[in-house]
């Protein structure tokens, strides 16, 4: 496994990043990361489906070929980038094996631009996202891991758009394929103000630039969810929350 960082440049804002692909254990136990295509330009994700978000990865130790989440990077400008992966040829011989989907709980999260664990917390165990409901569940698990108490789903989702509530907490999860809007961030903040709660926003497709700027002004933590179910902080308020906990 090559754990070296790969230099990437965001095509939206031209910021440079060093991306380290997350490594998950193969069924044989060997740490395995998708083979990033060096020199290739990442592409912004403007449309997301559940069927095109897996890549084929082959373990060099056992030859097993499996499906893994497509590597993604959340840029600080709010764009979510698809990181190109080298094609993998089918394994041959006795080492060939069937496909296997990664399961939540197999591995701790890793990789560049990932949240930093607070010293007192165990590693976050993500939930692989396949549906919109999975996205809400993954965000709820993460908020509980951060230290928020009694985090519950709103059933059915109310007109306010508040998907999760906890002690002194309101959170919204946007599972759509479009970046979260300025209105969504402002409405969440206003709802938190009226209930004297903290607000947190999660999105699968990132944030519109004006939404990101307003969140910075209001101190609303913004997270991008990748399909492994591991939230990535995209602003200072989110990074502070990850560092300090609830």
TrEMBL record:
Annotated segments matching region Disordered: 90-119
Name of the molecule in the record: Restriction endonuclease type IV Mrr domain-containing protein
UniProt organism field: Streptomyces xanthochromogenes
Top-level lineage group: Bacteria
High-level lineage: Bacteria, Bacillati, Actinomycetota, Actinomycetes, Kitasatosporales
């Amino acid at each position: 496994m090559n754990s070296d960082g790969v230099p990437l440049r965001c095509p939206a804002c031209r910021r440079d990043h060093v991306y380290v692909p997350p490594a998950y254990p193969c069924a044989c136990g060997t740490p395995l990361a998708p083979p990033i295509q060096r020199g290739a330009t990442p592409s912004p994700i403007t449309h997301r489906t559940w069927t095109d978000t897996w890549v084929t990865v082959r373990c060099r130790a056992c030859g097993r070929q499996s499906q893994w989440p497509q590597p993604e990077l959340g840029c600080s400008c709010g764009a979510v980038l698809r990181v190109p992966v080298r094609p993998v040829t089918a394994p041959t011989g006795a080492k060939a094996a069937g496909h296997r989907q990664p399961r939540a709980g197999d591995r701790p999260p890793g990789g560049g631009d990932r949240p930093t664990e607070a010293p007192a917390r165990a590693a976050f165990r993500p939930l692989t996202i396949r549906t919109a409901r999975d996205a809400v569940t993954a965000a709820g698990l993460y908020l509980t891991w951060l230290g928020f108490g009694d985090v519950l789903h709103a059933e059915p989702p109310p007109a306010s758009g508040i998907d999760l509530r906890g002690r002194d907490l309101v959170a919204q999860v946007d599972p759509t394929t479009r970046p979260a809007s300025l209105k969504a961030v402002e409405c969440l903040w206003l709802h938190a103000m009226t209930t004297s709660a903290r607000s947190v926003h999660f999105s699968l497709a990132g944030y519109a630039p004006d939404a990101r700027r307003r969140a910075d002004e209001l101190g609303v933590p913004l997270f991008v969810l990748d399909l492994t179910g591991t939230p990535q902080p995209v602003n200072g308020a989110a990074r502070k929350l990850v560092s300090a906990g609830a």
